[in-house]
Amino acid sequence: MMVSILQMHASIARRLLRVVKVLADIDIALSKSVQDGHFSAWIGSRRVDYRVSYTPAMFGQKLVLRVLDLANAPTHLKDLKLPTWMERDVGQVVRQDSGMVLMCGPTGSGKTTTLYALIREIDVTLRNVITIEDPVEYQIEGVTQIPINESQGNSFSTMLRSVLRQDPDVILVGEIRDPETARIAMQAAITGHLVFSTVHAQDVIGTIFRLLNLGVESYLLASGLHLVLAQRLVRELCPHCKSPQKLSPADMMRLDRYGVTGVTKVYAPRGCSRCLDTGHIGRRAVFELLSANDDLRDAILADTQIQDMRKAIRSTMFASLRESGYRLVAEGVTTVEEIDRVVGAD
After folding, report:
1. Span 44-63, pLDDT tens digits
2. Please, is 259 exposed, middle or buried when counting C-beta atoms within 10 Å of its C-beta (0-12, 13-18, 19+)?
3. Which listed residue, 7, 47, 137, 265, has the most CB atoms within 10 A of its CB?
């Protein structure tokens, strides 16, 4: 969600665009092509990285800066604020020697940030951890981080095949986007490597079918997949100005349907100077966790449909994205409308 901060004169804006290009080592003479770069700045004792993107538009170039500041990002498993049972299950898998851990969600939902937090739970002095990313977003001490370069032939699949000759214990693949990468990653997961990656899918069930559609054999998927975590980012209510209100009967029925009962009071955004009159400060992740068990593996091997797969996961502790979100509503963290906006229509 965008918030308007200020409007500046066109001449000042053009100067600002040139200054950012100089900082990011981008050719200031070009203005009709897509340009990308990055630069860093030190704020006190901490380093903040910026990703720069220029795109030609009707009236000149459009500039987007992506701020990568670890001060505003979770750095370890406990910082993700997972429910207790989810944190326990994820922590157990991260300590294993092999298996596949997948994150799913749309672009900008925080998948990579969450994977970085999981990687930091691993003792890099004892285990050889290698990441393959596009691009490397945060630098992690003690971890070998490799950026891919498609123009030079260094794709995810090519680099993954090369990395397997580097005797890795843990591998992070930035994204599984093609059949070859999916097949190599899954084979690595069943041959003594702990593999982390992301998939563009709406939920945990969709992730399984996405891998099957990429051509991963069902026996490989059933053997190698250990955990799938779906997530979305929702805006948190400003604690300084949020106002209590009575929960409507319709919303109460919706929360009851997802097991969130006994809620009579929720909070609504109001707006103040501290939140720039938006009513929100910061974002919080909502999660959906699927841990592989025998029932799920049997369902994968049987080539079942989505409804059969959903029945298989009922034998595990499971909370959907919407249920997890509604629990945050009950805690006064966010609103029903925000959960519906991010998760989608009920």
Report:
1. 888 899 999 999 999 889 99
2. exposed
3. 137
| Integer CA distances (angstroms), 111 to 68, 103, 105, 166, 250, in order | 14, 6, 7, 26, 32
The Cβ of residue 136 has, within 10 Å, a number of other Cβ atoms equal to 17
pTM of the model: 0.88
Q: Are strands 170-173 and 144-147 parallel, antiparallel or unpaired?
A: unpaired
What are the chain's domains?
A: 10-69 (3.30.450.90), 73-232+291-316 (3.40.50.300)
User: What's the pLDDT tens digit per position in 233-242?
Assistant: 999 999 999 9
Residue 13 sits at φ, ψ, to 5 deg, of: -60, -40
pLDDT value of position 308: 80
On the question of pLDDT at 1 being above 80, the answer is no
Residues facing residue 211 across a β-bridge: none
Contact (CB, 8 A) for 167 and 175: no
Say if residues 251 and 257 touch (Cβ distance below 8 Å).
Answer: no
Side chain identity at residue 11, one-letter code: S
Alpha helices in the chain (DSSP H): 10-23, 84-94, 111-119, 156-163, 179-189, 204-213, 218-224, 249-257, 294-301, 306-313, 321-330, 336-343
Token pair recorded at residue 41? 């700045």
